[in-house]
Structures are given as C-alpha cells and as structure tokens.
Design a protein that fits this description.
Keywords: Ubiquinone. With 127 residues, the protein is of the alpha+beta class. It has helices at residues 16-25, 63-69, 77-80, and strands spanning 26-31, 37-41, 48-51.
Length: 127
C-alpha cells in the first residue's frame, strides 16, 4: 500500500484523523500481543479506544482488553485479571469468511454428507 492508504480509510488501521486525535488527546496505556494499541483520554479517563494493527475487527481484541475498553475493569488487564491458566486456549478472532470457519457436514464448504431426515418432518403444502 502507498503512503496515502490510510489517509481517508478506516477499515485497515487508523485514518490520519484518528491517529492525530489519538496522539493529541490520548495517552497510550498499552499494547496487546497482536500489536493493537490502547488509549485513554487525557482529560476524561472513562473515554477509551483502540487502534487496530491491521484490519479493524473488534473480535481481535483479547477478552481482558475488551473488559477494559468497556469499563468493566478500571485497571489495565495485566494488573486486574489473573494470568491465563494452562488449560485455557488463547482467544481467536471471528473466523467467519475464512477457511477455518465452521462448516457442518453437508454444507457447501463442508466435508461429508448431511445425515438423512429422520421422518419427523412433514412438509407444508398449501390447501
């Protein structure tokens, strides 16, 4: 992408306007493992936002940071939440539209054949 890729667009990172507003009025409070940057307004700490690293998809925000953004927790996730337990899987973004999306048997993108109907269904016919 060229120099002007984010001049007026918002769907692949922050536009210039959002970046300028964030640097001028916000205080960077942290970054997550995906590179998303989290801000808090300098004069009103209840105003919080994120600048995504890559496409703007809120499902890419980890649960702890999501709780902080929504005001569920006041402290940063590292201080307010316990460490991830060994049996917990890392969060995954929404996979809809990707090759890893769930596709049940019999669907156009799925494997296998759909199980036959069990006979408990009666088709509606107009009278």
């Amino acid at each position: 992408m060229g120099l002007f890729a984010n001049a007026f667009t918002w769907w692949n990172g922050a536009s210039w306007g959002t970046s300028i507003f964030s640097r001028r009025n916000g205080k960077e409070v942290g970054r997550d493992e995906d590179g998303n940057v989290y801000f808090q307004h300098r004069s009103d700490p209840r105003r919080r936002w994120v600048i995504y690293s890559g496409s703007n998809d809120s499902s890419r925000v980890p649960p702890g940071w999501n709780a902080w953004l929504r005001g569920t927790i006041d402290e940063l996730p590292e201080a307010a939440l316990p460490a991830r337990r060994s049996f917990e899987q890392p969060p995954r973004p929404n996979l809809t539209g990707t090759r890893e999306a769930y596709r049940p048997d019999g669907s156009m993108g799925g494997k296998g054949i759909r199980a036959p109907a069990t006979g408990d269904y009666q088709a509606w016919t107009p009278e």
